Amino acid sequence: MAGARGCLRVLRQRPEGQGAGGRAGVGAAVVNRVARMVVILARDGPTCVWCARVFRGQAVPTTDHLVPRVKGGPSWLENEVAACRGCNRLRGHVSPVDWLGECLRLGWNPDVERVSRVLTLLEAAIAERGGQRRARTYVQSQLRRLAKG
Question: Do residues 103 and 51 make contact, with C-beta atoms less than 8 angstroms apart?
């Protein structure tokens, strides 16, 4: 966990669009994406947040934004979880709480605690950094719905 925090700090300090060594461009974006996934997996573990599949073979980790980008979600590590490609594609822009319900209905074993923890991290990051007006209210409503059970 301490290593993930250190990587998170380094990634935050880089200017947007720059990867390792301050390089800009497509290569840097790939390096940044890989580095982000390493931090997410270190923070959350090597399983899909929605179906609990271990990432190996065909189960490849992808970055899933809890607050979808189209609904105002930032591209911050605090808004990202690791999900297998199938779950990420199926979820689309469905809210985290609604998708957790769908996962349970399908007989999967979603990690409700992880979703709650990452949403709480995002809420704290928004409070610290400011902005994100749309995402702030979305996160608060999702946390309220999770608390209701």
Answer: yes
Residues 65-78 as b/e (b if ≥16 CB within 10 A, e otherwise) read: bbbbeeeebbebbb
Q: What is the pLDDT of residues 28-42, one digit of tens each?
A: 666 698 999 999 999
Strands 61-65 and 80-84: antiparallel
State the DSSP code for 27.
H
Instruction: Enumerate residues 6+ apart whose C-beta is below 8 A from 59.
Output: 48, 53, 84, 85
Q: Report pLDDT digits (tens) over 113-136.
A: 999 999 999 999 999 999 899 999
Q: Which amino acid is at 146?
A: L
Spatial CA neighbour of 17 closest among 3, 4, 5, 30: 30
